[in-house]
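About this split. The held-out portion is used to measure sequence recovery: a designer receives only the C-alpha coordinates and must propose an amino acid at every position. Recovery is the fraction of positions where the proposal matches the reference. Here is one held-out target exactly as it appears in the evaluation file.
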Protein backbone atom coordinates (compact mmCIF):
# COMPACT_ATOMS: atom_id res chain seq x y z
CA UNK A 1 0.00 0.00 0.00
CA UNK A 2 1.28 3.44 -0.87
CA UNK A 3 0.94 6.32 1.54
CA UNK A 4 -1.86 7.69 -0.61
CA UNK A 5 -3.67 4.34 -0.43
CA UNK A 6 -3.33 4.48 3.37
CA UNK A 7 -4.68 8.02 3.61
CA UNK A 8 -7.65 7.09 1.43
CA UNK A 9 -8.70 4.31 3.79
CA UNK A 10 -10.86 6.80 5.66
CA UNK A 11 -11.82 10.45 5.77
CA UNK A 12 -10.25 11.20 9.15
CA UNK A 13 -6.85 10.27 10.54
CA UNK A 14 -6.92 10.68 14.31
CA UNK A 15 -3.95 12.46 15.85
CA UNK A 16 -3.39 10.59 19.10
CA UNK A 17 -1.45 11.67 22.17
CA UNK A 18 -1.13 8.62 24.41
CA UNK A 19 -0.01 9.32 27.97
CA UNK A 20 -0.58 5.88 29.45
CA UNK A 21 0.70 2.77 27.77
CA UNK A 22 -2.26 0.71 28.97
CA UNK A 23 -4.65 2.99 27.11
CA UNK A 24 -3.08 2.39 23.69
CA UNK A 25 -4.72 -0.90 22.73
CA UNK A 26 -8.23 -0.12 24.03
CA UNK A 27 -8.06 3.26 22.32
CA UNK A 28 -7.08 1.68 19.01
CA UNK A 29 -9.83 -0.92 19.37
CA UNK A 30 -12.39 1.78 20.12
CA UNK A 31 -11.41 3.69 16.98
CA UNK A 32 -11.47 0.57 14.83
CA UNK A 33 -14.87 -0.34 16.22
CA UNK A 34 -16.05 2.97 14.80
CA UNK A 35 -14.47 2.19 11.43
CA UNK A 36 -11.21 4.13 11.66
CA UNK A 37 -8.18 2.02 10.78
CA UNK A 38 -5.44 4.56 10.15
CA UNK A 39 -3.97 5.97 13.36
CA UNK A 40 -1.29 8.58 13.97
CA UNK A 41 0.45 8.05 17.31
CA UNK A 42 2.35 11.22 18.11
CA UNK A 43 5.89 11.12 19.42
CA UNK A 44 4.99 13.50 22.22
CA UNK A 45 4.95 11.19 25.21
CA UNK A 46 7.46 8.77 26.72
CA UNK A 47 5.21 5.80 25.97
CA UNK A 48 4.65 6.61 22.30
CA UNK A 49 6.96 3.88 20.95
CA UNK A 50 5.51 1.31 23.33
CA UNK A 51 2.04 2.35 22.22
CA UNK A 52 2.92 1.76 18.57
CA UNK A 53 4.38 -1.67 19.37
CA UNK A 54 1.40 -2.66 21.49
CA UNK A 55 -1.14 -1.66 18.85
CA UNK A 56 0.81 -3.38 16.08
CA UNK A 57 0.84 -6.59 18.14
CA UNK A 58 -2.72 -6.55 19.44
CA UNK A 59 -4.72 -4.78 16.72
CA UNK A 60 -3.52 -6.18 13.41
CA UNK A 61 -6.16 -4.36 11.36
CA UNK A 62 -4.86 -0.98 12.53
CA UNK A 63 -2.58 0.89 10.12
CA UNK A 64 -0.25 2.59 12.54
CA UNK A 65 1.77 5.67 11.73
CA UNK A 66 3.93 7.72 14.01
CA UNK A 67 3.60 11.48 14.07
CA UNK A 68 5.51 14.48 15.37
CA UNK A 69 8.68 13.16 13.74
CA UNK A 70 10.99 16.17 13.62
CA UNK A 71 14.51 14.66 13.40
CA UNK A 72 15.96 12.07 11.02
CA UNK A 73 16.55 9.65 13.88
CA UNK A 74 12.85 9.85 14.84
CA UNK A 75 12.02 8.28 11.51
CA UNK A 76 14.18 5.20 11.98
CA UNK A 77 13.00 4.84 15.57
CA UNK A 78 9.39 4.93 14.40
CA UNK A 79 10.09 2.28 11.78
CA UNK A 80 11.86 0.11 14.35
CA UNK A 81 8.83 0.36 16.63
CA UNK A 82 6.65 -0.98 13.82
CA UNK A 83 5.09 2.15 12.38
CA UNK A 84 4.26 1.78 8.69
CA UNK A 85 4.36 5.48 7.92
CA UNK A 86 5.61 8.68 9.49
CA UNK A 87 4.08 12.11 9.89
CA UNK A 88 5.84 15.40 10.55
CA UNK A 89 4.59 18.87 11.39
CA UNK A 90 7.07 20.19 8.83
CA UNK A 91 9.97 19.21 6.66
CA UNK A 92 13.73 19.42 6.67
CA UNK A 93 16.34 18.16 4.23
CA UNK A 94 17.51 15.62 6.81
CA UNK A 95 14.04 14.27 7.41
CA UNK A 96 13.26 13.98 3.70
CA UNK A 97 16.58 12.20 3.13
CA UNK A 98 15.93 9.84 6.03
CA UNK A 99 12.53 8.95 4.61
CA UNK A 100 14.01 8.19 1.23
CA UNK A 101 16.90 6.19 2.68
CA UNK A 102 14.97 4.50 5.46
CA UNK A 103 12.09 3.14 3.49
CA UNK A 104 9.40 4.58 5.74
CA UNK A 105 6.81 6.60 3.82
CA UNK A 106 6.67 10.13 5.22
CA UNK A 107 3.79 12.58 5.30
CA UNK A 108 5.59 15.89 5.80
CA UNK A 109 3.96 19.14 6.82
CA UNK A 110 3.75 22.05 4.42
CA UNK A 111 2.43 25.55 4.95
CA UNK A 112 3.56 27.48 1.87
CA UNK A 113 3.96 26.97 -1.90
CA UNK A 114 7.71 26.83 -1.35
CA UNK A 115 7.27 23.98 1.13
CA UNK A 116 5.18 22.13 -1.45
CA UNK A 117 7.93 22.64 -4.02
CA UNK A 118 10.47 21.22 -1.58
CA UNK A 119 8.49 18.04 -0.95
CA UNK A 120 7.80 17.63 -4.67
CA UNK A 121 11.52 17.95 -5.37
CA UNK A 122 11.93 14.98 -3.00
CA UNK A 123 9.44 13.04 -5.10
CA UNK A 124 6.54 13.27 -2.69
CA UNK A 125 3.07 13.97 -4.03
CA UNK A 126 1.30 13.69 -0.67
CA UNK A 127 1.76 16.05 2.27
CA UNK A 128 -0.06 17.72 5.13
CA UNK A 129 -1.22 21.28 5.14
CA UNK A 130 -0.27 22.19 8.70
CA UNK A 131 -1.53 23.93 10.71
CA UNK A 132 -4.34 23.93 8.19
CA UNK A 133 -6.64 26.52 9.70
CA UNK A 134 -3.78 28.94 10.35
CA UNK A 135 -2.21 28.27 6.94
CA UNK A 136 -5.26 29.54 5.09
CA UNK A 137 -7.53 26.53 5.28
CA UNK A 138 -9.80 25.94 2.30
CA UNK A 139 -8.67 29.07 0.46
CA UNK A 140 -5.06 27.92 0.66
CA UNK A 141 -5.91 24.44 -0.63
CA UNK A 142 -7.82 25.96 -3.55
CA UNK A 143 -4.92 28.29 -4.29
CA UNK A 144 -2.38 25.44 -4.19
CA UNK A 145 -4.48 23.33 -6.55
CA UNK A 146 -3.72 25.72 -9.43
CA UNK A 147 0.07 25.37 -9.62
CA UNK A 148 0.17 21.88 -8.07
CA UNK A 149 -2.89 20.04 -9.46
CA UNK A 150 -1.46 16.59 -8.72
CA UNK A 151 -0.39 17.33 -5.14
CA UNK A 152 -2.62 15.70 -2.53
CA UNK A 153 -3.05 17.08 0.99
CA UNK A 154 -4.07 15.91 4.42
CA UNK A 155 -5.09 19.16 6.12
CA UNK A 156 -4.44 18.91 9.85
CA UNK A 157 -4.57 21.40 12.70
CA UNK A 158 -7.73 23.27 13.55
CA UNK A 159 -9.95 20.90 11.56
CA UNK A 160 -12.99 19.54 13.38
CA UNK A 161 -16.21 17.67 12.71
CA UNK A 162 -17.91 20.86 11.54
CA UNK A 163 -15.22 22.02 9.14
CA UNK A 164 -14.02 18.63 7.87
CA UNK A 165 -16.72 18.12 5.17
CA UNK A 166 -15.69 21.23 3.25
CA UNK A 167 -12.06 20.11 3.32
CA UNK A 168 -12.99 16.59 2.21
CA UNK A 169 -14.92 18.01 -0.75
CA UNK A 170 -11.73 19.50 -2.21
CA UNK A 171 -10.25 17.57 -5.13
CA UNK A 172 -6.76 17.76 -3.63
CA UNK A 173 -7.67 16.40 -0.19
CA UNK A 174 -7.25 12.69 0.59
CA UNK A 175 -8.29 12.88 4.25
CA UNK A 176 -8.09 15.26 7.18
CA UNK A 177 -6.18 14.85 10.41
CA UNK A 178 -7.58 15.79 13.78
CA UNK A 179 -7.53 15.15 17.45
CA UNK A 180 -11.25 15.58 18.02
CA UNK A 181 -12.07 11.87 17.66
CA UNK A 182 -10.02 11.01 20.75
CA UNK A 183 -10.38 13.86 23.25
CA UNK A 184 -7.96 13.67 26.15
CA UNK A 185 -10.72 13.58 28.77
CA UNK A 186 -12.43 10.59 27.15
CA UNK A 187 -9.12 8.73 26.81
CA UNK A 188 -8.27 9.42 30.46
CA UNK A 189 -11.69 8.26 31.54
CA UNK A 190 -11.46 5.16 29.37
CA UNK A 191 -14.79 6.05 27.79
CA UNK A 192 -14.23 3.81 24.77
CA UNK A 193 -17.88 3.75 23.76
CA UNK A 194 -17.87 7.52 23.37
CA UNK A 195 -14.69 7.35 21.28
CA UNK A 196 -16.23 4.65 19.08
CA UNK A 197 -19.22 6.94 18.55
CA UNK A 198 -16.95 9.85 17.58
CA UNK A 199 -15.03 7.60 15.20
CA UNK A 200 -18.22 6.34 13.59
CA UNK A 201 -19.42 9.92 13.13
CA UNK A 202 -16.05 10.82 11.59
CA UNK A 203 -16.30 7.87 9.19
CA UNK A 204 -19.68 9.15 8.01
CA UNK A 205 -18.22 12.52 7.02
CA UNK A 206 -17.54 11.21 3.56
CA UNK A 207 -20.37 9.11 2.24
C1 LIG B 1 -1.68 18.25 16.24
O1 LIG B 1 -0.56 18.36 15.81
O2 LIG B 1 -1.95 18.25 17.44
C2 LIG B 1 -2.73 18.04 15.24
O3 LIG B 1 -2.57 18.91 14.20
C3 LIG B 1 -4.09 18.08 15.78
O4 LIG B 1 -4.60 19.34 15.69
P1 LIG B 1 -6.08 19.56 16.22
O5 LIG B 1 -6.02 19.34 17.71
O6 LIG B 1 -6.38 20.98 15.86
O7 LIG B 1 -6.96 18.57 15.53
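Reference sequence for scoring:
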Amino acid sequence: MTLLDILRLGPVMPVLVIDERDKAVPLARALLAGGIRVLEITLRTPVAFDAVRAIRDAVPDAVVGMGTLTRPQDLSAARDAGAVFGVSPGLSPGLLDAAEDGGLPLLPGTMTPSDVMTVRAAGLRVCKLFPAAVAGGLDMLKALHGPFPDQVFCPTGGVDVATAPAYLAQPNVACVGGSWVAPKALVQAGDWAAITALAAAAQRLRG
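Annotator remark: The pocket of 3-phosphoglyceric acid is lined by residues 15, 156-159, 177-180 (CB under 6 Å).
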